[in-house]
Amino acid sequence: MILNITSRDNSLLRRVRAVRDGKLEGLIYIEGLRLCEEALRSGLEIDSVIFSEEIEKKERAAAVIAELGGVCNRLASVSEKLLETISYTKTPQGIVALAKRPTSGRARLEETKAQQPLIVILHGINNPVNVGAILRTAEAAGATGAITTHHTSDPFSPKSLRGAMGSAFRLPIWTEVAYEDVLSWCGKHEIRTVGADAQANCLYTEIDWRDPRALIVGPEATGLTEEEIEGADEAVRIPMQGSVESLNVGVAAAIVLYEAARQREQRDAVSSPL
User: Where are the beta strands (DSSP E) in 21-167?
Assistant: First the structure.
């Protein structure tokens, strides 16, 4: 049954705004048709869906709404004006969903059966757009999981989810971990940690990424501290020319992760029977 909401003070709309603003735990805020599709395909537990009367007129959107309606607890239509009151963006995207926050924790990483783990550790990265972009790249490059430390933006915040475009729904993630605990966990599981450091002697192409590895990328403004680099097993740098001193953390992570993917693909090609 589709509810028709006409009041800004409707209890469901108030609930959506609370989730959007980070005032209600346990649920995540998802906006936009593409991201709602990703949530559906990823098997998230959908709580509620609110859509505008205009978007329902579009064939693709109508099909997605119908599918969401079959799995969510509440399905509601609103006017464009009312949708603006719950939208996270300046230009509403026609549909908003609330879903149960995906399980995130050490157990999720340990459940993965990858023989050669490739983990990306996001340490102190406070720009949610960068967090989302790194998670998206990590999934695309074949990483087996991600860890975010304290003071890193929530990978399930609206901005991070938009940047990840569904990857945060699928990639095993362990959040809010102390840096020392991350290093300890990696050591326990024989995963060598590799810090990204502009001053490192070793190039990112000079180590063997085919072994279990965890890439550590640090804060946008400062990067990893000397102490944090010393805590890692190894450190690598990306060569840069001209007067450029550093790269955007998302770009740097992508370069290194795709080198890891390249090496791993070569290994698999050699080991595969003809």
Answer: 27-31, 46-52, 74-78, 95-100, 118-122, 145-149
In tens, the pLDDT along 205-221 reads 999 999 999 999 999 98
- The total number of residues written for the chain in this structure: 274
Burial class (CB in 10 A: 0-12, 13-18, 19+), 31: buried
Q: Are 30 and 154 in contact (CB under 8 A)?
A: no
Alpha-carbon distance values, 242 to 129, 189, 198, 199, 239 (Å): 27, 40, 14, 16, 10
Q: How far apart are the first and last CA of the chain?
A: 55
- Asked if 239 and 204 touch (Cβ cutoff 8 Å), the reply is no
Tokens of 25: 């735990």
Task: Judge contact between 253 and 196, C-beta under 8 A.
Answer: yes
8 A C-beta contact, residue 105 and residue 200: no
- pTM (predicted TM-score): 0.93
The position carrying tokens 């709309």 is: 13
